[in-house]
Amino acid sequence: MCLLGSVTLLAVLPVPALAISIRYDYRQMRRKEQDRLARMDVDYQRRKELAEFNARREERIRATEERTAKKRAKRQKKKDKKRQKKEKLDTPASGQEEEEVQIHSVEENSTDSDSSDERQIRPLPYSESQPKENIS
């Protein structure tokens, strides 16, 4: 009877207690898993939004740089045209230039007997003696 009593006691008492414990553990694990999945979804959404924001930001930056480069090229082209126009007005005509070169070469070749070793420095015409301004 002792053996029978212990078997019946073990068989009857643990089943309801075990069932309640299993149900409690199941609900706890289920709740933890649901919380974990919810956190994963929030994290995924946050990363996705951040990636989309960065993609839009990079696109805006690239578009801005392209516009800036285009405007910079336009300004540079305008400056170059202005410089060419100024250089064209500042330089004498080709005929005058040749005459000045011939005059200077004749003056250099002709020397006085007193100053044969010394060269005289003669000022250049106004347009050539003034340094051109560097426009930057």
Explain this structure:
The protein is mostly helical and 136 residues long. It contains 4 helices and no strands. It is rod-shaped. Residues 1-13 have low confidence and may be disordered.
Shape designation:
rod-shaped
Beta content:
under 5%
Structure summary, number of beta strands: 0
Tally of helical runs: 4
Low-confidence stretches: 1-13
> How many strands, what sense, and barrel or not for the largest sheet?
none
Rg, Cα atoms, Å = 48 Å
SSE pattern, N- to C-terminal: HHHH
Helix content: over 70%
Structural class, by secondary structure, is: mainly alpha
Terminal Cα span:
113 Å
Mean pLDDT across all residues, rounded?
75
Would you spell out the secondary-structure blueprint of this structure?
Layout: H1 2-12, H2 14-90, H3 94-109, H4 126-129
Keywords:
single chain, 136 residues, mainly alpha, 0% strand, disordered N terminus
Short description:
With 136 residues, the chain is an all-alpha fold. The protein has helices spanning 2-12, 14-90, 94-109, 126-129. The longest helix is centred in the middle third of the chain and has 77 residues, at 14-90.
